[in-house]
Amino acid sequence: xxxxxxxxxxxxxxxxxxxxxxxxxAAFVGRNESGKTTILQALTLLNKDERVxxxxxxxxxxxxxxxxxxxxxxxxxxxxxxTNMIKEKFPSLPEIDKIKLFRTNKxxxxxxxxxxxxxxxxSDGGLNSWxxxxxxxxxxxxxxxxxxxxxxxTKFFEGAPPKNQAEFDAGLAEFNNQFNVVAMQDPxxxxxxxxxxxxxxxxxxxxxxxxxxxxxLENFISSQLHPRFxxxxxxKKIYGNINLNEYIREEKGERGxxxxxxxxxxxxxxxxxxxxxxxxxxxxxxxxxDSPSKCIKLLNTASNRLTKRLNPAWKGDPIHVDLRYxxxxxxxxxxxxxxxxxxxTNTGLxxxxxxxxxxxxxxxxxxxxxxxxxxxxxxxxxLDEPARNLHPTQQMGISDxxxxxxxxxxxxxxxxxxxxxxxxxxxNLLVVELDKRKHLSRIFYDYWNADDNTLTPILYGLARxxxxxxxxxxxxxxxxxxxxxxxxxxxxxxxxxxxxLQDPNISMNPLxxxxxxxxxxxxxxxxxxxxxxxxxxxxxxxxxxxxxxSSQLASNEFNPIQTIFFEKDGQKIESIEDYLVLDDYLxxxxxxxxxxxxxxxxxxxxxxxxLAKKKKGVLENLQEIWEDHKEDDWNKxxxxxxxxxxxxxxxxxxxxxxxxxxxxxxxxxxxxxxxxIRQYQNAGIKADLEKLQKGKxxx
Length: 699
Hints:
Radius of gyration: 37 Å
Low-confidence stretches: 258-266
Largest sheet: 6 strands, antiparallel
Number of helices: 25
Strand content: 15-25%
Mean pLDDT: 85
Number of strands: 22
Shape: elongated
């Protein structure tokens, strides 16, 4: 049974999630305290044994909660096998392939709805149910002589239905023996009883539970098909040495100060999971611990089982886990790295490994044990941050584990990591946001409409294709030249003015403009592109930091032709903003800040105001002016905001404030870039010819 839609209402911070479509392997992405955990926990309300706490009901909806509200509801799709199971038990009903489950604030049990299917709620004496079976038995007993009737104990038929075949067989066998003893002097009564006792429809496997068809159907689904929501949130850490004396006392319910030898220990559950995966019986170990050969054999077998179960989810070089018994009844967990050539290195206690390694190891042990112990099949697994603290490579190992589980289960999990998002289909990727004013969670099925900050991990995940395009040499060598710029403003200006000028002689179309995250990212980004086949050029400001970047590029074998500094009329300029005539740039500044700082005493800046600061470029002058007005709440000058204003006006065609001189100065920048590209290409051709000529001489 798979969850296809769900809705949560009046639960903690969620007033109403709306109806959400969900897939078989779905990720919930959202910022901290957005409600991801709340959603996962709310879905556990659909477990049949779950109980609703008053503390979990939404305080702001106290009025609505006076009426009955569906706190959690889910539309489930049945498998063909499940549909056939229902049809076999209820042949008169139409085929049932969908069921709605819901829990309200007024009734303790999960309730069922069957879409567009009419099911009788009237008492049905012909229904082959436990209730009708036990009623027929009691009616039969009313027909036998009273002196026999009063000797027969009918408690088995008057209580709750048996839970399983064994309980049914035991109860019925006990009653049959008792009845034969009581009625042994009356063969006719025994003969009548044998007719009832031997009826095939009275076998437990054939009996339903319920007095009406609807009641019987609901009871059948509850006992045989009701989905299980399994919630995982607490991923406990395992250390290197385990005090078995304390562990045994813990297993018996006798609390000690610590069951971990020297190291801190979270809970005995982690050790229990470790031993479960290793199929290590602690009682068997107790029996052989004084016999070294038997103890070693037992632990070697357990260690191999444990290693085999862990390695499928372990990325990187495989590991071997060795369980060793030490004096003092201490169990040591020893880890070794196993390399491809078969060599084994780095053997040592688990607690000597890095924290990230210990956490990864512990997570896989705990999660694998819990899922295998529960024999999870057709369950709905709810995982809260399963990849926290993990390196991206290990996160991909966990994602493989989740994918494998999703074959026979449905997996819903919360994450912040782009490496844990591997399906961008709506329904398999859901975004959770918090309305801070109302403190309510909202779920986006169309996640692209969510807030940009919330979407950050999704956007990073979507950009994996861009990363692959950088590292694919075939793409690099057959691509247009790449020009790497230091800031987003540089990128916006280059693209906007190229569109604005529409000059075919200097068009930027042959270029890919790539904005570095910050100046520190320019060098490694340029090296990555260059090493993977791209003709790479770097456009730099004339700042000291940018000059250092230029030196580092030269040290990494970049040709000086590939590094381009901003210049105008043969003179170096500080930034791309200096290609704009000062009056043109100040127009954008005054338009932006006149509105923004109207209440802070802002007045339009003039060319004289800016030049009076006598700094190297327009940005440094403006930053100095803003610093002078720090006490007036002007904050810092944001040049990117001005960039956005200018580029937006270019897009809208509202460019009267841009002078011809500004246009000409940007044309000179494009000519400079185009000239450098031609120089580099010619130098490359010349180098290739020299190599060819040297090769011919050797021949």
